[in-house]
Records
---
Amino acid sequence: MASDDGSSVAATQSGPSQKTSWFDKTRRILLVIGIIYAVILLLLCTPFFQRQTLYLNNIRIPLFPKFDLPEKYGLAPNKTLNMMIPTQDGESLGAWFVLSDRYYHKLSASPTRESLAAEHIQVAVRNHPTILFLHGNAATRAFSARVQHYLTFSSRFGANILAIDYRGFGDSTGTPSEQGLIRDARAAWDWLARKGTIAQDVLIVGHSLGTGAGAALTKELGRDGITPKGLVLLSPFSSIREVLETYQLFGLLPLTKPLAMIPWASNLISWVLVHKFDTLKIVPDIDLPVLIAHAENDWDIPDSHSDVLFNAFLDRVLPKVEVPGNALTATKEEYKAMSSSIKKRQAAKEKLVHQVDIPGFGHTESFWDEKRQRNVTLVKTLWGAHDYCGAQEGVQDAIGRLFGFF
Ligand SMILES: *[C@@H]1O[C@H](CO)[C@@H](O)[C@H](O)[C@H]1NC(C)=O
Ligand SMILES: *[C@@H]1O[C@H](CO)[C@@H](O)[C@H](O)[C@H]1NC(C)=O
């Protein structure tokens, strides 16, 4: 016993000094991390850094792009017209118009670039569906993941594609902003209209950041009494705010989680956020058929964003829950009414929503919105990550069936 005591005293004597230096080091490292974190957050409060990190339009992929040579990125010779589209407020947007393969293959001779502009586009938009493609942040319309969408849309769907680079992206002029992107989407729409495209033949397809612009465009068109064929949201977000709250750096580090501990931080985020893209708020203004697709292995935007959006569409057709006006003075009857209305809502949901599990691929949920005579479908895939969700044939087939491309 005595010797045991002695040795333990010796051990604790050498202990403290080691412990303090280890403790000091850790504290210093944490302090540095904390300062870096605070600086990043402060920078993100400035409109300039917000713009840089949200749009990432200065990330030019591919490097040294040859927009006037779409063939370089895999498109058939003279199937694509490279051009500039003017916006209402004087910007100029780089854009590609890709012909439907069903049209392109029927031509007896390969078109020239001149004949594409002068005649083929006008004929193709009148005889085939057209997809207005609104890409996500970073890179340009020549980015390989995007080109892959044009290739499959024009072949499997037989659709024409108009893909634009928003202001500040690619060879477009200007600086990106929320209003600016919506204007750009509208400029692309107006260009199609000038070529003689019928609204009902145009499907608006947004990817990632482009879903924000696409949803806002749909709302604006609805206000003008224009009804496109539908809206597809690929890897969407419910709002930028939600992205900030759910974003995980490298899919691991929750970036703004620590802020959740500060009660006023959440209000602060809303207040400093210049570019909101609040798609969730726009849902009640969208009456078109809608397809939402999201990969479960999306590391940039979690697929819960798509659940939120789908539920918002669903919310409009389900019976409301009767919540007592004042929880403290509510009578037993009021509580009974509430619980029965919750049950009714749940039953209505189960009856309405049709779920199909597709082994090896994912699952779909859909419902028919009787009042608006439209189908709303959510496709959840196991694969595809953030950029290639819509490049999967299973997702394309769901789009094709819903919008009558086959
Ligand atoms: C594509 O168009 C260009 C210019 O209009 C023309 O010179 C070229 O021959 C065309 N390419 C093919 C394969 O016809
Ligand atoms: C919605 O459309 C999809 C694709 O056409 C179809 O499979 C599904 O059954 C439809 N759902 C409802 C509830 O109408």
Note: The CA atoms of residues 319 and 344 lie 7 Å apart.
---
Amino acid sequence: MNNKNLLARSLAAVWHPCTQMKQHEQFPLIPIDHAEGVWLVDCDGHRYLDAVSSWWVNLFGHNNSRIRAAIQLQLAKLEHVMLAGFTHEPVVKLSERLSALTDHQLGHCFYGSDGASATEIALKMSAHYWRNEGHEHKTQFLALAGSYHGETLGALGVTDVALFRDAYAPLIRMSATIPAPDLRFPGTQEGSLTALENHLEQHHQHLAAFIVEPLIQAASGMIFHEPEFLREAKRLCEQYQVHFIADEIAVGFGRSGTFFAHQQAGITPDFLCLSKGITGGYLPLSVVMTRHSIYKAFYHDNTARGFLHSHSYTGNALACSAALAVLDIFESDNVINANRERVPALNRLTKPLQHHPAVKQFRNRGMIWAFDVTGTSSDFARCFHQAALKHGVLLRPIGHTVYFMPPYTITDDEFELLVTATLESLDEALS
Ligand SMILES: *Cc1c(COP(=O)(O)O)cnc(C)c1O
């Protein structure tokens, strides 16, 4: 199939996500033929550095030989079996290893296929727990302003992004939000905690859970807060008997600098949602982990007290084998320490960006870099994205915030190239 043909057929037959399709009258789709390491290669041989890890999923580069080998081994044995009434080694091993990574505090793993499903599972499990415990009025949720927890109807109820939500407002049971902590603005952390305490005090009898993206509110523009915020928020939730849900779909698996972001606060959430990086970007998989005291409230002779939620692909064996390969890489390459040791040198490479007159609030946490651009038009994100593509880099700013979330396997040279292309794209987008 020649490229022109492929693009036309894609526009005719494929409804692309997060896209106003009409904009493709001006901006062509990019047909990717293959990929290697941080590089996506299109059908004409143009290369694009995947600086957003293909929407934050790809941790160890494309065409990773170790993940591929693990999937191939599993593929020859068992691709899938329904997980109700059956089990298999990859799902058992994965659950045990994830549990060990929480110091066995979160010993029960419930699987879904994507991030939004994990959010749905955590919300349902929390409310159902309270019902089973005789607190059937605890059915409300609380989220931070600017939160993003996925785009199914239940998840949109705790997602505070107007563009994704407003068209569906009549279909959604909206949760309350409190102001978010934001390290760019002093005092917001204290303000947020005060609002949390007030809300808990007034509404705890109806509140099942508080859901948070620990340390980094990613989709609303890489907004950072301190571990101290999580520590205090968790303490308040415990005091008022409200569950604390850590949505680490974006920030888990080392992105924040530790394996899980909540570890930096020394807390254990009641529910931990994981997806995105879990299979290194190979196959869809998500999981919600919880502690034994919550699991126990469902364990009963009465069927309806059980958690009867299900997805057809729950615990898919191929996806679990990819996730096991990802955990193997973390262990054998000591990825968390290796990343930590690299960050100072990578930060030095960003100096020219930090000194750019239009760049404000340059920030880094773990393997995330972000900065705000001043003097932009409302069209900045699209202009910058297009300019970056011309310079061989895939970047998708959020509003006027540009961020890097590259695969951990990016080399120093590739990172330097990314910085250079970003500078050039910035000047183009601003001119
Ligand atoms: C991406 C994301 C989700 C939703 O995951 P999907 O797989 O896109 O449904 C939920 N929460 C956070 C924090 C995310 O970044």
Note: The radius of gyration is 22 Å.
